[in-house]
Amino acid sequence: MHPLQRLLDYGHEYRKQIWLAIGCSILNKLFDLAPPALIGVAVDVVVKQQDSIIAQLGVKDVFGQFLIISLLTIIIWILESVFEYAYAQLWRNLAQNIQHNLRLDAYNHLQDLELAYFEERSTGGLMSILSDDINQLERFLDVGANDIIQVATTVVIIGGAFFVLAPSVAWMAMSPMPFILWGSFAFQRLLAPRYANVREKVGFLNARLVNNLSGIMTIKSFTAEDYETSRLKQDSDAYRQSNAKAIQLSAAFVPLIRMLILVGFTALLLYGGMAAVAGKMSVGTYSVLVFLIQRLLWPLTRLGDTFDQYQRAMASTNRVMDLLDTPIAIHPGDRALPANTVRGEVEFKNVTFAYQDRFPVVKNLSLQIPAGQTIAIVGSTGSGKSTLVKLLLRLYEIKTGNITLDGIDLQDLNLRDLRRCIGLVSQDVFLFHGTVAENIAYGSFEAKEEEIITAAKVAEAHDFIMHLPQGYETIVGERGQKLSGGQRQRIAIARAVLKNPPILILDEATSAVDNETEAAIQRSLERITVNRTTIAIAHRLSTIRNANCIYVMEHGKLVESGTHEQLLEQNGVYASLWRVQSGLR
Q: What is the pTM assigned to this prediction?
């Protein structure tokens, strides 16, 4: 489907506003084209006086005739200005509305896509679509759409006037038109792939910038500033070169069109002048045609800029619409799950899962997590522990087998209800740019101040928060960069405590803290895990030794299970890990 048709289909709710804007653009151009006709009438009055067109309507007095022309001029100019104001308002507001909705729809669609989609794409590339491409569309709707409509109106009105007033020379004036239109469409076809390449290159450039700004500490610590500047230079130069190829072609449009316009203007000037001298055409009509031919042909030189905007906008439209058309792989589920009804019994049954184009990381795994108990999952790096968390949150869909919550298949449950009843404290803590209080209350947006403070105390975070410059109102910086790793982790635990979910997942929740802080967090975790289903993933075995059951994973499979004491007696993988961490070997 053509990108313009895709855009029109998307903007169907604005159909009334679009037609109003088109109508005002046409009316503005009609009144804009009226002054040349008035000039012709005025010339007719000067030459013929009592025999002029206006005199034939009953006004013989020359002053009265000029008074009528003046009054019509005032009315026409006022109406032209009114409709110019109207179309400017309508087109610009339409651009803002479509831009606003398109960005929100694209962002919402992105949020619904599975994690695998983001793993295959760069953040900068997606930012380019949400920002650059949608802004490019706005620029076209602001100006370009009106220009196209007004040029089309000009061609129809003036072309018709020529054939009515002077059919003998009309064909000469209009002869360049087919070539101008053919040239415009030919340029459009040639420009389309070049601007698609421009949009692709700007996506790569934005990806580089976002990636480098996110990793600025690594760049500085490895003194890689010059290296990254050279890489950015390559991406920026590729963008510049792709733009240069498009500019090379688009810049040739206006000069070529100008030469075609010269043919029509010269023909009218010569043959129309000779017709007026020979008395075959009135001087007033000749004056009108000379003015009109300029009003017809010179605006066509702007078609180059207009088509340039159009092609950029269509390339951007394709990228945005392709994003919106990306199918959502994860079924949202339709069975409601009120959090207060959840007991928290989780079961994995013969689950197999592989990331895209990779070998399975979970293989035919089965395990049961009783309601209200604390279970731990341990194993070496890459054994599939964190993958189980992602599958339980349905961030990915399993390949075979099924996962149930309280006996109900996760795929049947409403996805948002499922995630609302699970609290996740990840080893990779993400804090948003905002205050400490806002980050603790994230996901529990209606929480009161005292509830936030209580949650912080449970997470052993209150004391350090009170020592921050503004306490709970301290800005944590982007990704929480103003806080230490341990502070960020305790805020994440406070966030989960405030959410008060029936299921709590601790994915290396104490990995970034010192021994003293770990002990404090362990005390808080002992309180918040009572009568709550808790899944703890850990490398530090000391943090999970009191779990009701410990599962040991290796290479995506469950190899051992039992309590801490039982696993030590088995003298297997867990016992070996314990001896290494406790210094017994």
A: 0.73
